[in-house]
Amino acid sequence: MPELEARLNALIRRQRGALDQAVYQVHDLQLDTRTMQVTRQGQAIHLSPTCLRILRILMRESPNLVTREQLEKELWGDLTPDSDTLRSHIYKLRKAIDKPFNQALLETQQGLGLRLVAPV
């Protein structure tokens, strides 16, 4: 049964990827999924592969909240890392897409999760 569940989850992830948009945009942040290029205010942003995957999930779900468990499940399946790897990737992502700019897009809701939202 665990192998069947893992195979079904892999199929769902592949199908979800096939249905993804080509370009995601939240406010002035853009992700082109064909080239995996990220820009904000016309400036190129370079991200690690894991940060790119996190950003893609958050942009796909925006403006909805994404829980830590959802992110971990989609990134690593049932083999989540022992250390707090997700937190360090979120820190790097926030540093790349929010710190150099006047308005933050990545919002943390304490104890609930993360979401990408356009400033009001």
- The amount of beta strand, in percent, is 15-25%
The CATH class, by name, is: Mainly Alpha
User: For the residues shown, what is the average pLDDT?
Assistant: 89
Radius of gyration using CA atoms only:
15 Å
Strand order of the largest sheet: 1-2-3-4
Number of strands: 6
How would you characterize the largest beta sheet?
Answer: 4 strands, antiparallel
Summarize the helices and strands and which ones pair or pack.
Layout: H1 2-19, E1 23-26, E2 29-32, E3 37-40, E4 43-45, H2 49-61, H3 68-76, H4 85-97, E5 106-109, E6 113-116
Antiparallel strand pairs: 1-2, 2-3, 3-4, 5-6
Helix pairs in contact: 2-4
Give a quick precis of the structure.
The chain has helices at 2-19, 49-61, 68-76, 85-97, and strands spanning 23-26, 29-32, 37-40, 43-45, 106-109, 113-116.
Task: Please name the defining characteristics of this protein.
two-stranded antiparallel ribbon; Arc Repressor Mutant, subunit A; 120 residues; alpha+beta
Describe what this molecule looks like in 3D.
The chain is an alpha+beta fold. 44% of the residues lie in helices and 19% in strands. It contains 4 helices and 6 strands, in the order αββββαααββ. The protein has a 4-stranded antiparallel sheet, covered by helices on one side. Helix 2 crosses helix 4 (85-97). The longest helix has 18 residues, at 2-19.
